[in-house]
Amino acid sequence: MVACSAWRVFELEHHVDCYGAQARGFCESPSQDGSARRHDATWRRFEVQDPDAFAAAVCDGKAAWIATLHDKGDATQIARSLQQLAEDTKIEDLAPTAWPQGFRPAVPVPAVEPWPPEPFEAYLRAHALYREAVTAGNYIPGSRALVYTCTSMTFCGGHGDRLNGMLSAAVVAILTGRHFFIDSQRPLPLSLVLEPHRLDWRLHGTLATMPASLSLNDDLRGFEADPHRVMDSQAGVLRFVSNQRLTAAALRAAPRQARALGLSPRPKLHALLFRELFRPSAALAQRLAARQLPEGPLIGIHFRAGDQMPERWKDPPRHGLDELDEFLDCAEKVQRSMSDDTRIILFSDTERALELPRVQELQKQGKLLWPSQTDSLVHLDRSPATLVVRGLLQVWADWWTLAFDVDALILCHSGFGATALEIGPDRPAFLGKGCVRAEGSTG
Asked: Using CA atoms, how far apart are residues 153 and 189, in angstroms rounded to an integer?
């Protein structure tokens, strides 16, 4: 639970609930007449690992208090303490001995040096020398490598799983002094949609065939329980298979290296690493340019129905089509805080969204755009290979637009949109169901 100096209070689980009051803003219980307190919320795709960094993000740098809650009774006690601090603060109330158990001021997040720090630049230089040597068929004594692997012989997951796996693998490689490479061939080579930026992660020669391999698919708890099984591996070259987000556990397992390399504390680390690793390929850049997005602000909606395209993939139901109205309501609410020429751009995994009268009316008015090519709607992990090959560029173009080309986001609970929120620039973002604020700055 995080209470800002504006007296909003957050209860941390896998999502984050925010309980606020009126202008005074401390956390209140329902009044005697039964009237409800105001209930806001902040959604995250992943649980909060660093409450102090989270407090700095959601409280806009204001002073904050953090509480560890074990049951609802703790929340009531915390609310009383907040009320006391807000209304009638005494010197003795500020002593740590007066605070409820688990209640403390947030520690200000220290300033971090500009990105990229010199130790990371040194890593890039060493990687370039290693890659040059490997390409020439030479061997550098003592050098080690880690290769993120996604092939026809491995399970890779969907778009969000792959990005989390790749970027987590990069963190593990950097922390352990390994040179990072990507061997992603499923359904097509990754280099067809993304090119190396500052670190050339492409494979050459025999480096692509290595004996040592570790699979962490669906095994986040296993990695958290024993990260050193991976990080202390003595293999010269390590194939790394994962659809999990391992970064937080890796940073905790090697705190000295993380600080020395400038990786921790580092808000939006995945976003920074993405920019070091990737830029659009010529084919993706051409597809994005052909989209010809209009001038003016854009609100991007990602709506995942799940089970509405059975001829293309099998997926559990996510959102009923009738729930798209709630996403559009949220978008129009956000639109009112922006300029009059703000438009909505809708990305969905079903062309049936175009059958809804409200969508058709917004399209007719020029207020809603549907950029997808409906014959290219695919799911990277669930569609047949023949369809995915055709739709791969479309998937990445849609994600890139959500990540970098819209001014606000309306999301569903999906890794596709969550990674776009985290890796793209800071902007207003909301979970469409309930129009709940979404937060990805400290992911």
From this structure: 14
